[in-house]
Amino acid sequence: MSESTGYSKLANLMASKHYAIFRKFRSMAVRDLLYQQAELTDMENEFSALVMRDKNIKGEQGLYDGDWYLLSTSKSRNCGGEQWEKAVQIRQKLREYYSSISQYSEMVSRPRARRRDVSMLEELLIDPQLVGELVLSGADFGPGNNSVFHEANSTDLLTLDHRTGERDVFTRLLAGPLFHQFEKFLRIFKRPILSDLENQGEEGSAYEYSDTCILRVVDVLGSILASMTPLLSIIALYFVKRLGHRLAIVCIFTLLFSISLALVTRARRIEIFASTAAFASVQVVFVGTTSISGQT
How far apart are CA 43 and CA 37, in angstroms? Predict the structure, then answer.
């Protein structure tokens, strides 16, 4: 079987390596919703005009507004039927409109694609040494700004793959720029991925790392950072005897504690406030008890 170099290869790569990234086309989707809204507005006005017309006609047409059966069977009895036909058209258009809104709402709720994942896909499309040659001549992967993965479309890209772990500043920093700075040292323990994933071809020059392992390291470092702030605070307060210096230490470490919570976790402001207040209280109690002990 010959090696695929087009959409089949790219699809296999995106599916197997968790790079299911696609454009939302939000601008076109919103424009289409506006068009449907305009259609419904016109249909609403036309229906209102038909209702007013039938009300002013002597006979059963004047009863349509209060008798659903007469209205729904008016065409079969050769009594016009334009009002009922318009109502059915509005019903169908409303279903289409609500379906489009529901799909748009679901689409925009999908998480935004990570920039480093998009950059990786761009590199795979450009550099044949990574996973072999990818030949895509369509407008979706054209040169320059035409590519769907171009930086200009970064805010319009979604991912269908669920990435584990937190998305706080600390995790993004360690798993992103810092990891890529030291990634070349880890390559001695890894083998590059195959250039043809379907047919198990030759090795390329791209390397794959487990998100689980990276996030486990980030969690360990985050736990160490979280425990260091209270420990260093207590140690500093133990050795410093002057009350003014102790109060300065309490202020500094309380500030560091709140900053670390904001960076390492995705806690809400009220949660950060409560935790910081509790931490400050513990320090104040420690200062008070050790000061009394030192004076007696």
Answer: 10
